[in-house]
């Protein structure tokens, strides 16, 4: 079941109405109302996830059970025992992830290296949707217990609901147990303003996904799928840059907005990354839940930034190598990670990798020329990286760059602004720029559009665009990760 489907359009209001106006009243006098409320969320989440393939439920239940038991087995004051339990849980979960996601890749490379017949070594396993996301979410729980950042829970229903919570189950945000699990350990009550903001965020996420990303997708598939002129390749690269942002941040907006409908607050996953002034700021604003996961559980344990510059550079390369590999079993993802690590080197050497942490052009309608130039340059660096990310292999990425560097590309650059696809892209950028200090594009819209009826009219236009001007592409890009 995907967010932009008829099934989800029926599923969500049914679950919402049952959750608040039927089931909630039915259990209100029960001494076990919190456990029953969480049980309802768990059942709904398993229905949502099992819609793809019921066999996926076995895997997520096993992952949840392993991490839940790891917490039970850890005991205060027994550090050596707890370390062993934590690592057993990590190895089990990483082994499952590796088997489904990376076995065929390594088997193919092994066969190629030794001249063997690769097909006989492959398992052709179906990659369970969202396995990379919920595995990392489960691992954070046992690691945080070992670090004594939280106490283990014995409430299995609350824990299983934490792992499987359907809005963010498939593509994040990757939540920490320290943030999300406590919300399942206290009763939620309906809040109209929170639900209203959640509905606005869902609408904005659908616009970014169905109108922006899915419209760009048609052009991107054409540009990356066949030989074409350099200007077409350039447009394909730029449109993919907006496609992957609209697709992934759109999913996050829908997930976070949906969670608000049920009284749950998820962490922000994107903070207008294409308004960044350098590549370090870009990574503080892109896929925040994953980048902070790597920071807290890999980068800082390696020494973080409180060490020599050589080790900081080493740690940065390790993080981006792991990040690239996390995205999939393909050399392009590893090259993409190493490319971004290389972009960090000058900033680290000059001590400027933490230069920009504020919102660009705070208190001003427009950036100054310097800020604008920095944003454009950072955007261009991101475009180059996304070509590597999108290519099917290293040779195809090199060929794509060669096509982009032709003379025809320079003479045909203006064509990108003539494509009607730039209209929804421009609308998305404008709305997010005007609301860049909010959590999402439509939050705080009343500061820009004072009239309530004018805002309602714009919301209605966004809804109409989602229904009548959506693209043909349906799947979310990050479902494959």
Any overview of this molecule?
This protein is mostly helical and 481 residues long. It has two domains: 6-188, no CATH class; 193-277 and 356-480, no CATH class. 67% of the residues lie in helices and 0% in strands. The protein contains 20 helices and no strands. Helix 13 (288-299) packs across helix 14 (309-327). The protein is globular, with a radius of gyration of 23 Å. The chain starts with 5 loop residues before the first helix and ends in a 13-residue tail after the last helix. 41% of the residues are buried.
Primary descriptors:
single chain; 481 residues; 0% strand; 2 domains
Mean pLDDT: 87
How many domains comprise the coordinates? Answer: 2
**Oligomer designation:** single chain
Annotation, overall tally of beta strands = 0
Q: Number of helical runs? A: 20
Order of helices and strands: HHHHHHHHHHHHHHHHHHHH
The largest pleated sheet is described as:
none
| Fraction in beta strands | under 5%
Tell me, briefly, the overall form.
Answer: globular
Instruction: Pick out the low-confidence regions.
Output: none
Give the helix proportion (percent range).
Answer: 55-70%
Structural class: mainly alpha
Summarize the SSE layout with pairings:
Layout: H1 6-27, H2 33-50, H3 55-73, H4 79-101, H5 103-114, H6 131-146, H7 156-164, H8 166-169, H9 177-184, H10 192-225, H11 230-261, H12 279-285, H13 288-299, H14 309-327, H15 331-349, H16 369-390, H17 394-404, H18 407-411, H19 422-434, H20 452-468
In short:
By secondary structure, the protein is mainly α. It has 20 helices and no strands. The chain has 2 domains: 6-188, no CATH class; 193-277 and 356-480, no CATH class.
């Amino acid at each position: 079941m995907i967010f932009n489907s008829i099934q989800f359009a029926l599923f969500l209001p049914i679950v919402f109405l049952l959750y608040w106006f039927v089931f909630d009243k039915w259990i209100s006098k029960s001494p076990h109302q919190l456990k029953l409320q969480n049980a309802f969320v768990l059942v709904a989440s398993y229905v949502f996830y099992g819609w793809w393939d019921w066999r996926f439920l076995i895997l997520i239940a096993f992952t949840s059970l392993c991490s839940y038991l790891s917490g039970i087995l850890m005991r205060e004051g027994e550090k050596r025992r707890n370390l062993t339990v934590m690592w057993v849980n990590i190895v089990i979960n990483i082994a499952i992830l590796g088997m489904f996601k990376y076995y065929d890749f390594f088997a193919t490379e092994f066969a190629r290296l030794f001249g063997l017949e690769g097909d006989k070594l492959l398992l052709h396993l179906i990659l369970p949707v969202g396995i990379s996301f919920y595995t990392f979410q489960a691992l954070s729980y046992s690691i945080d217990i070992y670090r004594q950042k939280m106490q283990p829970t014995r409430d299995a229903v609350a824990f299983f609901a934490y792992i499987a919570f359907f809005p963010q189950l498939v593509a994040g945000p990757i939540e920490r147990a320290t943030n999300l699990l406590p919300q399942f350990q206290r009763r939620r009550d309906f809040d109209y303003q929170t639900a209203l903001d959640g509905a606005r965020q869902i609408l904005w996420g659908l616009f970014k996904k169905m109108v922006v990303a899915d419209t760009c997708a048609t052009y991107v598939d054409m540009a990356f799928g066949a030989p074409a002129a350099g200007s077409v390749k350039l447009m394909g690269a730029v449109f993919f840059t907006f496609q992957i942002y609209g697709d992934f941040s759109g999913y996050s907006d829908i997930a976070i907005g949906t969670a608000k409908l049920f009284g749950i607050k998820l962490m922000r996953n994107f903070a207008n990354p294409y308004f960044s002034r350098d590549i370090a700021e870009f990574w503080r604003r892109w896929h925040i839940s994953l980048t902070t996961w790597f920071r807290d559980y890999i980068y800082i344990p390696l020494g973080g930034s409180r060490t020599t510059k050589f080790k900081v550079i080493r740690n940065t390369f390790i993080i981006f190598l792991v990040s690239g590999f996390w995205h999939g079993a393909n050399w392009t993802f590893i090259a993409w990670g190493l490319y971004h690590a290389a972009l960090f080197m000058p900033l680290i050497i000059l001590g400027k990798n933490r230069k920009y942490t504020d919102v660009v052009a705070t208190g001003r309608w427009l950036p100054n020329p310097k800020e604008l130039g920095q944003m454009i340059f950072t955007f261009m660096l991101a475009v180059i990286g996304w070509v590597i990310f999108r290519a099917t292999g290293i040779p195809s990425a090199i060929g794509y760059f060669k096509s982009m560097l032709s003379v025809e590309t320079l003479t045909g650059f203006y064509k990108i602004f003539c494509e009607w696809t730039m209209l929804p892209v421009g609308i998305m950028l404008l709305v997010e720029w005007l609301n860049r200090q909010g959590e999402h594009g439509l939050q705080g819209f009343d500061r820009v559009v004072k009239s309530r009826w004018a805002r309602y009219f714009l919301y209605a236009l966004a809804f109409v665009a989602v229904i009548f001007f959506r693209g043909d592409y349906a799947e979310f890009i990050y479902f494959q990760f």
